């Protein structure tokens, strides 16, 4: 579970890191329209943050680099308030808190920022109100908020199937450094799935949870046996992805390059965070308008 920090004044902060799909295969479609996935989820250490404190007047505030990208969204539609409302209803208590979302991750970018915010809000309020909800119950609330939200309750590598609700632990061979790039184009997940349906000829065959334990073999496995089935659809909606992937692939130290989720964020894995930091500095110098983040994947 993500780290919950409780301060002396009883306020609470929970991290809401970025989710990466190291691979994303689409294995079918349910009658309700949702797609069945097979994916390896991994999480960065940094990302958004949720701060909660007691207040007689309930409030919600958004700060941070990407706060302005949520300005047009009715606060009631924000996944943070949706998560808070759903848990308050269950606990039959008023929403007697002020919530601040520190929005550091780009919006609609394939790295599940909104999902991470929703999961972090559930965990923060569960701790703040001392509810001690069991994990299956929190997962069921999370799934009502979005397919990616249950996994974001854990923030450790997970082998994910179903529409996102079936999760099994997945060991990464080591603590990889990672560079994330978003070219500044928001991509709507439903629009990408729609474009995928127009283009895709057949679903992927399920592979099963077969992850090499040794780093060299793991990277070879990712390169040779996996892909992101939404990539072609995302590229048609956001051609900038081609340039992002090409720049990431030019770096000889990059071990593995892929797009996350429905895009447009792409990432490269590195042996160390130091290598990722250097790559991020080079890319920022070349493409100052792109969002570039270097970090380490959680184990
Ligand atoms: C594609 C993925 C891969 O991890 O990530 P993102 O690109 O959003 O980060 C996720 O499955 C996204 O999960 P999430 O963003 O929570 O999806 P939801 O809000 O539940 O659904 C948004 C829309 O995406 C489509 N959708 C989502 C998940 C899924 N398994 N099948 C789908 O078809 C549906 O059209 C749905 O209406
Ligand atoms: N806290 C939030 N952060 C980001 N997006 C949010 C949030 N709450 C609601 N949304 C809505 O959810 C949509 C998907 O957001 P996001 O989770 O960032 O996408 P993705 O999973 O593709 O990275 C946004 O377009 C926005 O309208």
TrEMBL record:
<keyword id="KW-0414">Isoprene biosynthesis</keyword>
<feature type="domain" description="GHMP kinase N-terminal">
    <location>
        <begin position="78"/>
        <end position="154"/>
    </location>
</feature>
<dbReference type="InterPro" id="IPR014721">
    <property type="entry name" value="Ribsml_uS5_D2-typ_fold_subgr"/>
</dbReference>
<dbReference type="Pfam" id="PF00288">
    <property type="entry name" value="GHMP_kinases_N"/>
</dbReference>
<dbReference type="Pfam" id="PF08544">
    <property type="entry name" value="GHMP_kinases_C"/>
</dbReference>
<keyword id="KW-0418">Kinase</keyword>
<dbReference type="GO" id="GO:0050515">
    <property type="term" value="F:4-(cytidine 5'-diphospho)-2-C-methyl-D-erythritol kinase activity"/>
</dbReference>
<feature type="binding site">
    <location>
        <begin position="106"/>
        <end position="116"/>
    </location>
    <ligand>
        <name>ATP</name>
    </ligand>
</feature>
<feature type="active site">
    <location>
        <position position="19"/>
    </location>
</feature>
<keyword id="KW-0808">Transferase</keyword>
<comment type="pathway">
    <text>Isoprenoid biosynthesis; isopentenyl diphosphate biosynthesis via DXP pathway; isopentenyl diphosphate from 1-deoxy-D-xylulose 5-phosphate: step 3/6.</text>
</comment>
<protein>
    <recommendedName>
        <fullName>4-diphosphocytidyl-2-C-methyl-D-erythritol kinase</fullName>
        <ecNumber>2.7.1.148</ecNumber>
    </recommendedName>
</protein>
<comment type="similarity">
    <text>Belongs to the GHMP kinase family. IspE subfamily.</text>
</comment>
<feature type="active site">
    <location>
        <position position="148"/>
    </location>
</feature>
<keyword id="KW-0547">Nucleotide-binding</keyword>
<dbReference type="InterPro" id="IPR006204">
    <property type="entry name" value="GHMP_kinase_N_dom"/>
</dbReference>
<dbReference type="InterPro" id="IPR036554">
    <property type="entry name" value="GHMP_kinase_C_sf"/>
</dbReference>
<dbReference type="InterPro" id="IPR020568">
    <property type="entry name" value="Ribosomal_Su5_D2-typ_SF"/>
</dbReference>
<dbReference type="InterPro" id="IPR013750">
    <property type="entry name" value="GHMP_kinase_C_dom"/>
</dbReference>
<comment type="function">
    <text>Catalyzes the phosphorylation of the position 2 hydroxy group of 4-diphosphocytidyl-2C-methyl-D-erythritol.</text>
</comment>
<keyword id="KW-0067">ATP-binding</keyword>
<feature type="domain" description="GHMP kinase C-terminal">
    <location>
        <begin position="230"/>
        <end position="287"/>
    </location>
</feature>
<dbReference type="InterPro" id="IPR004424">
    <property type="entry name" value="IspE"/>
</dbReference>
